[in-house]
Amino acid sequence: MKPYRVLLCSTFLHQLLIYSVRPYVSLLADELGASSMQIGLLIMLSSVLPVVMALPIASWVNRFGCRRLTVLAGVLYLPACGMLAAARALALIAAAMLLLGMAYTLELTTLQFQSTRGDLGAPASSVIGYYTLCNSLGVSAGSFVGGQLNELLGTNLCFAGSFVIALINLAVVWMLRAPDLTVQREASGTIREVLTTENMPAILICGGLTMYALEIVNTYFPLYGKEIGLSSAQIGIVLSVSGIGQLVIRPFMHSLTRKAPLFILLGVFMAISGVGILCFGFAESYLLCIAIAAWTGVSLGILNPLCLFAVTATVELARRAKALAVRVMVNFTGQAIGPVGFGALAGAAGYRAVFWVSGAMLLAGALINRGRRLPPQAEDALRQ
Question: How many domains does one find in the chain?
């Protein structure tokens, strides 16, 4: 099997695994009596190590190679899922979320970097497109599978099903035989060089807000859905519809980048996402939740690959692992801050307020793209 096909299979499986687990950790913690604030803290733990380790992992990519780190990630998923399946105390959930976050960061960083390389048996632009497509497929399938497992097996045993997915993922990443790219340590770039690259701060902020919004939906919609009377299976379907929305928009992404400058697209779709997230706070029926999930899935689905394309077009290969690591760090910072900060808000004002304030933040974030443009050569690269 060609290396890029193994890469795409692994991309699908690790997103399938994560999204069959993370949204339903909230329900498990709620079942064990956790408060909204405690649930937010537990979800945050899966983002703590990613924030701290994202930059060292970029150096590890250059030192140890992508395959070793990807296999290590596959191994770490196993005890994380096993601990969740056995968890009857919040402390065990906390330990599992730390492991889950570390595994996810390792696999995300290495797969993301490999997708931009161009030496996997297919052009880099095609691999990136299929990479983001497989991400969306995994998100949608994982949300659906997790909801069905939760409904059929119960809150704990559903994670035993995720353990099986983790085993399959490990078997696939073991087959990854992509040539390791050796980058001189002195040529890999510094954080300052990455952050001072033109437009990189704005790109990173857009990416962080996008991941923050996705995390808010995945953390608090299961609890909000339970509050308005939805079953676990229905919650899973709503979340999977969001993933399908992300999938549906991908074939049109190339056409969109050819018709409008990148920062205009980022601003427009961030505003559309903000309206959709805000509307979640008014939804009280299953069908309306599905409609809003499709809306936000489409809008958020275009933002993440646009940010990835922007980093690829802006930063040369020698500094790309560092730039992507900074991007991962910022994204996980958004994912960490959201659940904790809004856990307190949910406890005080209810889950509706979480969606209202989050939607307003995205609408405000859309304004940072006003008047910005990529250099002409970078815009041309996006359109190829």
Answer: 1
Of the listed ranges 63-77, 105-119, 134-148, 286-300, the one predicted with least confidence: 105-119
Rounded distance, CA 384 to CA 369, Å? Answer: 22
Can you give the pTM of this predicted structure?
0.71
Interatomic CA distance for residues 79 and 75, integer angstroms: 8
> Please, what is the end-to-end C-alpha distance for the chain in angstroms?
27
Rounded Cα gap, residues 282 and 263, in angstroms: 30
**Rounded-to-integer distance, Cα 215 and Cα 357, Å:** 14
Q: Cα–Cα distance between 112 and 11 in angstroms, integer? A: 9
Q: Give the CATH number, domain containing residue 20.
A: 1.20.1250.20
At residue 374 the predicted structure's pLDDT band, cuts being 50, 70 and 90, is low
CA atoms within 13 A on the CB side of 284: 1
Helix 124-153 × helix 3-31 angle, to 10°: 30
Helices (H), 228-261: 232-249, 253-259
Containing structural domain, residue 121: 3-178+187-383
pLDDT above 60 for 80: yes
